[in-house]
Amino acid sequence: MIWNLSSIINDPLGTLKTYACLIPVILLSLTLHEWGHAYAAYKCGDDTARNFGRLTMNPFAHLDVIGFLSMLLLGFGWAKPVPVNPRNYRNFKVGEAVVSLAGVFMNLLLSIAFSLLTLFFLWMSASKSYTWLSSDVLWTILYYGVSLNIILILFNLIPLYPLDGYHIFELLFSRVLPSKVFFFLRKYGQFILIGLLILMNNIGISPAHALSSLIWVNLHRLASLLFL
Predict the structure, then answer these.
(1) What are the domain boundaries of the chain?
(2) Where in the sequence numbering do the catalytic residues fall?
């Protein structure tokens, strides 16, 4: 899905076109993901994120330059983590769960919104003659809007520290598994995650990408049944 350095060298114009479609989607998706964490923490009683200026839709407040470039060039990246203080939550367990899931919930809403937009424009394309609907830019943006948010959902639900899925995993199993399991994951989780990403890249396996592509294909099949 994400172009790499070889693509820049071999097809610079095509890469620039792809980036022009991809960058706004990345900024929107990461911004709403982090805003979701900040807003959920605030509603649960913790105003740390608001005090640090993170309760905002301004993408530059959430942007991590290294993480952003890594997402463009290497296929995975990150935004600035939202600072929270769980001790401020009115209910610790509820707060941890809500704040952890708020980011992926925003990505879910975005994936649904882009899917509905895709169906809407497919309906317009089938029922009326709009030349601008044949633009590759429009369909590329819609594709990235659907697929990137699906990928972010699945990626962030991996139960490895520091991802959101780890916090849910810890909430569910802290009384079942020994504490050394969580100590190990907190200490080495990010290295395991990097190793997993490198392995999947080398062997060409990407379940998240496969699922997002399947959803995209089935959106077009659904549109064919409904509108054509």
Answers:
(1) 5-227
(2) 34
Local structure of 42: helix, strand or coil: helix
| Core vs surface per residue 100-119: b (16+ CB within 10 A) or e | bbbbbbbbeebbeebbeebb
Q: Which of 146, 166, 2, 118 is nearest to 68 (CA)?
A: 2
Residue pLDDT, tens place only, 176-200: 999 999 999 999 999 998 888 878 7
pTM: 0.89
Whether omega for the bond prior to residue 162 falls within 30 degrees of 0, making it cis, is: yes
Q: What angle do CA 120, 221, 213 make, to 5 degrees?
A: 90
Tell me the pLDDT tens digit for each residue of 84-131: 999 999 999 999 999 999 999 999 999 999 999 999 888 888 777 666
